[in-house]
């Protein structure tokens, strides 16, 4: 224990992000220097805690990882994993509406175009590094095998996932891989197109698209292989998909780009096309 730092008193951890903020505010000015650095950094980057590692938080705060762990204990958590779980669960439940997001960005002084570009580039860089570091190669190979054996690949992705789904449909077409894009235009679900020998690539992120979950359920009930591309922890999709590819996108101001997702999706498409030709 660093000299001069008082022992951490046991306390119940905050149960909501709002309660976390309140405790953070109450502790402001009453923490040892290094723990205050942690508190200041966390307060400015609450939207990144769900997807950041201990090392990243420590680097951003300019403290050793041990100080981050002690800060977590000061906040009432057993460690960083428990504190991060609070933010991951909040992230999976809901995100602020776009009006609120813009207001928060303006209030934080990050509304200048050049600042936004720099922040989103940094978020994209972190996302790509996380993909390279955390990629499950076994699941990726399984996904490529399942999709490469399919007569036709059905692609489902709505709302934020639609750019990924439509790009995949474009790439598959250019690579000569039969694919059907389920876009929901005019309310058409094209569920009758799901035929024996086909496979479904379901793309959805928390909060999950009901349309995608329904299509995945129908594909599973018909005995078709289902590959899911989503963000962790993917609890609802684990029981629907034969393979779950998870990828995290570091957000800025609750806005998440698709940098890492597009990279993974493109890699998947090219790998599937290459496997079909062998």
Give the neighbour order of strands across the main sheet.
2-1-3-4-5
Distance between the termini: 59 Å
Classify the fold: give the CATH topology of the largest domain.
Rossmann fold
Cα-atom Rg, whole angstroms? 21 Å
Estimate the helix proportion, in percent. 40-55%
In total, the number of strands is 5
What order do the SSEs take from the amino end to the carboxyl end, as H and E? HHHHHHHHEHEEHEHEH
What would the average pLDDT be, to the nearest integer?
Answer: 84
Sheet-strand content, in percent, reads 5-15%
Shape: elongated
Low-confidence stretches: 1-10
Number of domains: 2
The major beta sheet can be summarized as: 5 strands, parallel
Number of discrete helical segments: 12
CATH top level of the largest domain is Alpha Beta
The helix/strand class is: alpha/beta
